[in-house]
Amino acid sequence: MSVKTTTLPKKYHEAVLRWKDVFLPDYEFLIQNWDKHFPNDQTFELCAYREMGMCTEIECGDQKGKPKAQRASELPEEAAHHLFGAIRAQASTEFGSIQQHRLTLARAQEEEEQFWILRMMAEELRHGYQMLHLLAEDDWSSVSKESTSDVIDDILSMNTGSHVLGAFNIDFDSFVDNVVFCALIDRVGKYQLQMQKISSYQPMAESMPQMLREEAFHLAAGVVPMRRFVTAAAKGETFVTLDVLQKTLNKWIPRGLEMFGDERGGGTNVRLGLKPMKNSEAQQAYYKEVEKLVRDLNLRYLRARMPNLTHGESEAVLERILAGDTVEGVRRDDLLYMPHADFFRRRGVPAFRMVGSQGESFGSAQEYLQHLVRTLPESYRAGRDYKDFVDALLQIENGTLTLEQASGRMPALRRVAGACPCSKSVRWVVDEPAARVAEPVAAQPVA
Amino acid sequence: MTETPGIRIRPLDEMDISDIVVIDEKIGGKYRPEVWERRIGYYLRRDPESSVVAEVDGKVAGFMLGEVRSGEFGLEEPTGWIEVLGVDPDQQGKAIGRRLAEAILEHFRQRGAHSVRTLVDEEKQADIRRFFGALGFEPATLRPFVKAL
Q1: What is the mean pLDDT of residues A114-136?
Q2: How sure is the predictor about A410, in pLDDT bands with cuts at 50, 70 and 90?
Q3: Chain A residue with minimal CA distance to B38?
């Protein structure tokens, strides 16, 4: 196994450094304290890594067995178009997640967990840098219709609200969001990176292994604190209750599911050799994995609450509680549950179908909104993202908007002036329905 | 990683914490989730591919955690260290430990290690000693020295 290390051309490298100074001001603090929190770990370096010695033949699709493309110009035009969109979206998510995490980083109660998130942010910066490296090292002008400089400029000027994928346009409200986001949204990222590891574009495939290694820790930076939260809650501490955790799961899981793209799509990526799974296949595997996470958290809670239980007994107690029994004061409503896959969706097949968190149906938008009051965090409901959902839902109900139009209409911040890594250059823009592509959206990559 | 009928070896991930806690409890009789949350976080941070788990029919049945380090104890060259392993007592006898070791040793080789080391308590862990002996491990002159404090 050998890894090739490179840096971006000077003007792009310096642009990323300037972006870092604005959106990751704690970077120097992280580096200064690296050895205290991560002793003997290799010091962080802002660079692109390419794994050498990977498979050089296309691994799926129509061209399986043929040599992978070393340059974008060797790709079929359709594949180059898809791939350019995927790289751009991936870069957007990497930078976008840092902008989200920084909002609430300082609110962490534990220094260790705060440094885990800070390290994760630095590694996301490197992942964004890796994607810019793919854009800068090749000529994408035939599909981008823009210069590399403009494409990179565009990516670095995005802000929360103007990113390509919805999950990266939602503000964090507390450190619970930092943690749950790592456990849920970075998990989607893991799936996308794993799928892209077989990309028919060799530089993309070679970019994935190091990103995946780093992503493994990002998931742990979410899951381990969540386990600690439920343990503390079981012992009666009142910092992060299971109710808060459940509502935060309800906030992020629907967005995570939508990041795989429309359930009907993804076949093109498989045919072009860019990914091995269709959207719905990857989405279902993800859902199953998060279900296991929720079950593990419930077992962790029960064993902290009833320390005399063995593992086998705790499994049995969990089944009894889920079946409706109350055991030592613990009821089904006291535990976490996995929200239904169609709950609170705004994209894909279940968009705006008004499905409840446990699969219930609702007869009117008002009834559904009351359900969302009970199931989503209050701070989230006070924000723009939720208001846009509600506006669209009400317009669907009164017939002024179709489901398809609503799915393509969610407002977003867009850059309307020159490139500048600050919010002054962006403003809220609502696309007209006709301006959006009506067909299912292909799966997009994520942080 | 390795695919063989019924047994799958793959890199460790954060979702394995619960299963490893259960295996550790079955072996040692103690429930130690905090220990494994911290420890698995450490290995995932360092090099997630240097630690592996075995799945039997989709369920975690064993684990082996380690990493490649250099510059310690006068060993300048990259050296693989196997630091902890466990196999579900209900799944023993299926050569799961051997499969785990083969996978981790292959990864150590890829990371440039020319030797692999571990520590075994010869008085209390005769079975572990036999296990490593069967894999070709031999006693070395590098010995731990201990002083009670």
Answers
A1: 97
A2: low
A3: A224
Q: Are strands B115-117 and B79-87 parallel, antiparallel or unpaired?
A: parallel
Q: Which two tokens stand for residue A259?
A: 């990041």
Domain that holds residue A337: 1-447
Q: Are the beta carbons of A443 and A164 closer than 8 angstroms? A: no
Give A180-194 pLDDT, tens digit per residue. 999 999 999 999 999
Q: How many domains does chain A have?
A: 1
Q: What are phi and psi of B86, to 5 degrees?
A: -160, 140
The two tokens of residue A7 are 């840096």
Main-chain phi, psi angles of A50, to 5 degrees: -125, 125
Measured CA to CA, the distance from residue A445 to residue A296 in angstroms comes to 27
Question: Which tokens belong to B6?
Answer: 């019924």
Lowest-confidence range among A287-291, A414-418, B5-9, B140-144?
Answer: A414-418
Q: Are B82 and B101 in contact (CB under 8 A)?
A: yes
Shortest distance, CA A81 to any CA of chain B (angstroms): 32
**What tokens were used for A223?**
């899951």
3-state secondary structure of A52: strand
What pTM was estimated for this model as a whole? Answer: 0.91
Long-range pairs, A267-271, Cβ under 8 A, ≥24: A268/A78, A268/A82, A268/A442, A269/A82, A269/A442, A269/A443, A270/A60, A270/A61, A271/A61, A271/A62
Domain positions in chain B: 3-134
- Pick B40's closest partner by Cβ from A116, A220, A289: A220
ipTM of the complex in this document: 0.92
Identify any residues that bridge with A351 across adjacent strands, giving them in sequence order: none
**Interval A343-399: pLDDT, tens:** 999 999 999 999 999 999 999 999 999 999 999 999 999 998 999 999 999 999 999
The 3-state DSSP class for residue A266 equals: coil
- Cβ atoms of A138 and A72 closer than 8 Å: yes
CA distances to A81, A150, A162, A171, A381 from A145, in Å: 11, 10, 20, 32, 39
Which pair of structure tokens corresponds to residue A286? 């993800």
Helix A242-258 crosses helix A175-196 at what angle (to 10 degrees)? 30
Nearest to A220 among B11, B18, B41 (CB): B41
Fold of the domain built from segment(s) B3-134: Aminopeptidase (3.40.630)
- Report the pLDDT averaged over residues A93-100: 93
Residue B73 — left, alpha, or beta (φ > 0 → left; ψ -120 to 50 → alpha)? Answer: left
Strands in A181-336 per DSSP E: none
A143-179 pLDDT, tens digit each: 988 899 999 999 999 887 777 777 788 889 999 999 9
A-contacting residues in B 33-92 (Cβ below 8 Å) = 33, 37-38, 40-41, 44-49, 69
The counts of H helices and E strands in chain A are 17, 4
Task: Give the CATH number for residue A80.
Answer: 1.10.620.20
Instruction: Work out the average pLDDT over B87-99.
Output: 95
